[in-house]
């Protein structure tokens, strides 16, 4: 009994002591050193809430995953030409009717990107890209069994939707992970789409020759879709604070994230849209006339040798298209990271305009025809790295996929202007005016870059 009483008294003392300590801790002024403890606790809590900075391997890994996905959808656009003649030989629908499927694909791949980009920004690239891998596979599987133009057109629409999501998500993710090398990252990603089909052109052509175009559609479609789904599982957007914007960069960037409706109310967006259309339309109009101009000058079959490689002039010119169209995107993107976006636009667009006009003047020389067509291709594809980087510099990273998606629709607008080349050719009886117009469009865009966009962008960033 006496031990129990002592125990209870001791417990009561311990309870009183605990209450006294708690009261002291709750009142900072009643104890010395309290402010130091409070500061330590606050600092520890902040450290827990702030995510760790992303490593270089993490950033480059995300970029490579996006490039792989882009390579896997490149055939949907650039490999289509291999299938047109075999499909026509089997069903005799006519090449014009078959090519309608390609037009549907381009329109769906381009015009829906703003909506798809909004979904990517909202739900993340993983879910959207994995789902799009399914669409990519379904599209070519349907092509393999299509026995009517209606099915072919439906497959083109499905493929366009899937490719648009992958394109927007991959470029948008690159823009978010690389605020310090945004032009290079966007260029490398876009190069995966522009040059990715070069790896599979020969295997697809061989399978068409040996097993038929249906087998090529089926197996390459399944393979491409599965790879997109698997790699898509590895994609993710950076968390807030994981990739901070460096303090000192050659290219000024905003620290605010603009939503799509805010972007549409800013003048720089519309200036960039007009420039995108001018360069896109000018490049398409010029490159579409390469075959006619070579045949008119009767140089299309004349062999040309460069660095030990000998090919007919027209074949050589078209072959370097994919190579230079891929190289130009990361190259000019990297240049823009060093000297500024608008300065790089001026150089590239002016080079394109001069190259197109020079091609018109010296097209009768087979060697110069090949070299100058290479200049035209090289100075054209950079729009797919410079404009996404500039858009994100101006409008922030959080909604980068959506905002560039709106700008990317300029590609579709430019394609609608390409038939103007046929009108001009029919009106004048030759292609001279077409090349002059194309050159002037690029020179106009070059002037807009320095005279209008550069000061306008500076005012926009200073005001915000």
Query: What letter string, H or E per element, gives the SSE order?
Result: HHHHHHHHHHHHHHEEHHHHHHHH
Second CATH tier, the architecture of the largest domain: Up-down Bundle
Structural class: mainly alpha
Q: How many helical elements? A: 22
CATH class type of the largest domain: Mainly Alpha
- Distance between the amino and carboxyl termini: 79 Å
Strand content: under 5%
Major sheet description: 2 strands, antiparallel
Determine Rg (CA atoms, Å).
29 Å
Task: Tell me the total number of β-strands.
Answer: 2
Shape: globular
In total, how many domains does the architecture comprise?
A: 2
CATH T-level fold name of the largest domain: Growth Hormone, Chain: A
What strand line-up does the widest sheet have? 1-2
Query: Which runs of at least 5 residues are low in confidence (pLDDT < 50)?
Result: 1-11, 21-48
Layout: helices, strands, pairs:
Elements: H1 2-26, H2 34-49, H3 56-78, H4 81-91, H5 95-111, H6 113-123, H7 125-145, H8 149-177, H9 182-195, H10 201-211, H11 213-232, H12 260-263, H13 267-287, H14 290-296, E1 303-306, E2 309-312, H15 313-339, H16 341-362, H17 366-378, H18 383-395, H19 400-408, H20 410-417, H21 419-428, H22 432-463
Antiparallel strand pairs: 1-2
Helix pairs in contact: 3-8, 3-9, 3-11, 5-8, 6-7, 6-8, 6-19, 7-8, 7-11, 8-9, 8-19, 9-15, 9-18, 10-11, 13-20, 13-22, 15-16, 15-17, 15-18, 16-17, 16-22, 18-19
